[in-house]
Amino acid sequence: xxxxxxxLLHPDPLTRQSLRARLSGVEFLRVLGEAVSAxxxxxxxxxxxxxxxxxxxxxxxxxxxFELAQMLSGRKHKPALVFIAEDEGPAFxxxxxxxxxxxxxxxxxxxxxxxxxxxxxxxxxxxxxxxPAHWNDPDAEVDEEATVRVRLGEDEEDRFxxxxxxxxxxxxxxxxxxxxxxxxxxxxxxxLIPYNQVVFIEAYEDYSYVHTANQKFLTSxxxxxxxxxxxxxxxxxxxxxxxxxxxxxxxxxxxxGSNFMLRTAGKTRIELPISRRRVAELKKMLGL
Length: 288
Fold this sequence. Notes:
The protein is of the alpha/beta class. It has nine helices and 15 strands. Pfam families: LytTR (PF04397), Response_reg (PF00072).
């Protein structure tokens, strides 16, 4: 039986050490990394095909375990998530977000065995992307319907990748402009938020929070990409961390120290330092 790679995600090193000891005796699991924040975990997922993430609810940084689950919900090969916590209060939320299990920590051996059994059942249907045998074995038989790997020269490869990138960018932009909605994932569902319901967007490392009047959604979009995409819909980059829907702005007020505050429609208030040059440009766009 092939093993599932396990990532231990928890801010407490003693908890990670205890988890590693518990999992070392499970033949189909292999602990292959530790992290303390959701974004460290996402970085590691880019390089290692983890089949299981054992995570705390509270993590270092701004994103917690539930926000990590939200970011992973749209993945085709989504790993099993086992939450560990000191109380059972958030358990319902964890299972709503697709958790394989939720453990009160520390956990006794009998309860831990139930988690192992659930992961064994998960392993039975979990499929990693297979590597075609003929990539490593030139003598292997090749199915006529299989994908053929074509070797390109260095110059040909560069031209091909550039053309592919341009084509993808063009088609992506065309799709985005057509629907005038922003796709976000929440609780395993994909929601389409109309641009005119977005109040502002906040950069967070390589991700961003999309704020509406009543909710915020952690997304995998970079703020720069959203700025380019939403500029024609009257979104303005007022700060390196914020992109604001100008149709939601109701007031620009001066603050001490040559700073300015933007107040938006509803109860949402954003207070940002804006250079005088940016303020002039903003007022011009608003017709003030």
